[in-house]
Fold this sequence. Notes:
The complex is a heterodimer. By secondary structure, chain A is mainly alpha-helical. Chain A has three helices and two strands. In chain A, a hairpin with a 3-residue loop joins strand 1 and strand 2. In chain A, helix 2 runs antiparallel to helix 3. The longest helix of chain A has 23 residues. Chain A is elongated and about 50 Å long. The relative contact order of chain A is 0.18. Chain B has one domain: Sodium/glucose cotransporter, CATH 1.20.1730.10. By secondary structure, chain B is mainly alpha-helical. In chain B, helix 5 runs parallel beside helix 10, helix 5 crosses helix 21 and helix 8 crosses helix 15. The chains are: A mainly alpha, B mainly alpha. At the A-B interface, helix 1, helix 2 and helix 3 of A face helix 5, helix 9, helix 10, helix 12 and helix 13 of B.
Amino acid sequence: MREIFRHNPGRIFLIVLLLSLIGMLWVPRYFFEPRIFFGWLSAPYLAGLILILIWLIAYLIYFFRYWPYRD
Amino acid sequence: MLSIIVLGLFGIAVLWMAVYGYRISAKTAEDYMLAGRGIGLIVLFFLTLFGISSTWTFYAYPGFLYRHGPAFVYFIWGCVAGFVSLYMFFGPRLWAVAKLNHFLSPVEVLAQRYESKALRAILPLIILASMVPYISIESLGVGLGFKAFAGVHESVGIIYTTVLLICIILLGGMRVTAWTNIFLGIIYATTFLGSLLWVINRVFPDGLPQALQILSATNPELLSAPGPMVEGEPLFGYPIIVGVFITGLMAFSWPHIVMGTLTVRDKTIFKWFPLLGIVAGGICFYTIPFIWGSLVAPAISHMDGTLVPVVSGKAADNVVQVIITKYLPGWFSTFALMGVIAAALSTAAIQLMTSAILVSRDLIHGFFKPDATDRQLIIWTKLSVIGLLILSVGIALWNPVAMALYLTSIAVPGFAQWAPCLAGGIVWKRGTKQGAIAGVLVGTAMLVAAFIFHLPSFVIIGSFIVNALVYVIVSLLTPKPAEHIERMFFDEVEEFLEEKA
């Protein structure tokens, strides 16, 4: 984590992850009426799925282009 | 009769793997406890995914969704982010410092990092107090499976699991635990997914939208927060949803998963592991119990002419198993039970290994026998396994609360108490012994008070936050760690990680 924090791509990576976590804490206020997506997805599940997809994209970009250690 | 033969063959297959692992192992403490630090990517994936995906995932999690609606999925999303964070942020440094200095347990790493004997005693005690009840739900889960399947007493399944666990761990240690997790994980995932698809196909010919229609018409509060009112349990309002998410994030400190980072062969595994964790674990595997518990099981219970009427309380823990038994052929129920046993064994084995290492390496070797040989260390670890198993079986037979609460109210908050000193010790040079001890003691005291006096759940979550604040404040107010500690835990680690893999 210290290595990640030392360069700009790493800092951007951490900020993206942090913002996505804050977003997860923000959205539950919209869970209190039945909303169903794509025929079966409930709102709490969809929110988490979006979180995981954001983490996946950020991880793929950072770890495979800017990973701070040598392969 | 067929069931007994299948379960017997399953037990023999597990036993054969344990014996084979024993024959090829190097008989050193490092080999027994950490698989010789030679675990590769795929084995690590199975070891950790099925180390965390236990009977809790098969029973308690769908059971909780079944009673409370979908918002509890937030705990799982927190867990996924927490586990992935461990391997992204803390794993490489923890692995490197343990490998460079031949540390055999993460508590040993922290005791050296903070130069504290007190921490070496306090941390294992807190972790063991949180871990043993968690181990007990594994054998309890199998007991419930046997009960739902054959109507026998829970103790039959508990004893069956205990015997297999003893064989796996006593013979093979961490290596066999990891290997058997591949076998067990495949059985578990196949059973869980197979049963879900088959039940949907049989009961809801129009697919999940049909299940959704039934719930919308009969019990719409099960489709959104806060879910239905459950007597004696809090309503899933905004604070609880946020609370379970934060509790899930603490998953990076689950000791048996942290232990996995010490077994890794080389640092490139930390580069690839999050991919498997996010895609195969987070998106694919954990969708299965969610659909089971939030849609399929409640829709079946609320539809006309159901074979599984609505159940409540602890009875909801095995609703998935009951549905499989009622709606699918008898032979598949045996297969499903095998999946439950696989789930229990895969988690309990690594939890027991981790707990026993803490007892032998940190408590016995650290305090009473510092000049112990490898052979003695291995023997103590094995004896610790037996002692811990007896303790966990006792709790399983007692079975005081609904299964979901063993994890969210006892195990995870307890594990979280070492999270600040673990994360701080690895990435923050300024973290001090006084800060670590003060944080752990204050946080644990809050947790114990909340448990004894039934304080509100925000006190449980608050215990971790207070622990972290005390750690930081006391660290800043006390003298910084010695230079040789900074060199050993930061400079040397960074040089090692910068080398070519």
